[in-house]
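[[Per-residue structure]]
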Amino acid sequence: MAQELNFEIVRNPSSGYTVPPPRAARDTDGGKPRDLRIMLRHAERDGLTITTHASWLPPRDQWRNARLETTPEALLGKAGTLRFEWKRLVVDHTDDSPGPGMRVGGRPLAEEPDLTQHSTLVETLVKTLAEEGFEVLDVMLDGSDPGLRRLRTFLLETLSEEKDLRISFDSDLPLPWSMLAVDPSRFSDPWDAFLGHRHQVEQTSPAYSWVDQLALEPRRRAVTSLNTDTTLDRVGRASDVRDLLDSRSHLTVRTRAVDLLDALNNAVLPEDLMYFWCHGSFMDEGTSNRRLVIKLSDADLIDSAKVRRRRRRLRDMPQRFRPFVLLNACHTGQAATGTHVEHLGAALIDLGADGVLGPQIEIPQVFASEYAYSFLELYLAGTHTAGEISQLLVRTFAEKFHNPLALTYSLHCGLHSRLDLAS
């Protein structure tokens, strides 16, 4: 005779054969920062491939990879559109119906760092820009391959549900990562969708310098330089920045290209921080490539080739060149153009710089000076990394000033850079 048995489930390790949610096994790291590495590789035969490594997951779940179905040209085109939209909607925004005391045809979002009086307009633009930022990420991960779809689900869920990750994009394609966004429809506040607002973000490079660096004697004050165009001395907080550097460090001021290039000709250039406050622009020479150049007070133009020539002979010599570089000039956050012409920031990294920070677009000078003062004040204290400061400033300018432009500043290999006077 059949007999019905009574039983009780005391363990259910498979959770009813369901897939655990992405956050299920992630709260066991004791509150330590979580590192996510995303490698984007381009090979002529294989196209684009993506590999992710999530350090906090169990070893068997840490690595994922897939072949992308989009093209480098499509991604670089989307990135170019994103930069264009930021400049068009924010920097070049004009007000044809100004309020009292405001001028017709002015650029109100570029004339002051504090945009509180324009907060309604800014919130609308931020939502639009978040959607544009998600478009780049969406196109990158779009496809029908099952492996790619699984990686897409994992990556978008991780970027959306986690906060304060340290993300290194080790990428052959120079994209404006901090300006990219996850799906803004998931958030009540569109600011939360931007990668640069949610996480610490850097672009790294497989060509990162392996130059052996000489150690410096411990010192009580940082060694810094201000490489500047004197026509900008009265812009915004430029004079405050100079006073800050002068009071908190041993400061060298350079106003001519020859002085900078001569300094780069020395095997030992013991600067902890190099600050550039000057103009940056693209030179169209009638070829398929455009050069990114900066200009100090004189007429000479400085590009990656000139900087490389000055230090090329030092490659096999004992040397010291390991500053953190704030390239506060238009477009200097871009690592390369669509044709992969090397920019100044990438050359400085390859020569030994510890990190480079610069804007992806033409940046309003008044905002740039305010951003520089805020960044340098924190960096010279030596208590925060450049990655921590960059994310903090994105949130600070958003919350206090309703200004999104801090998102346009991109770190190149500088996520863990910190002022170290004992090195």
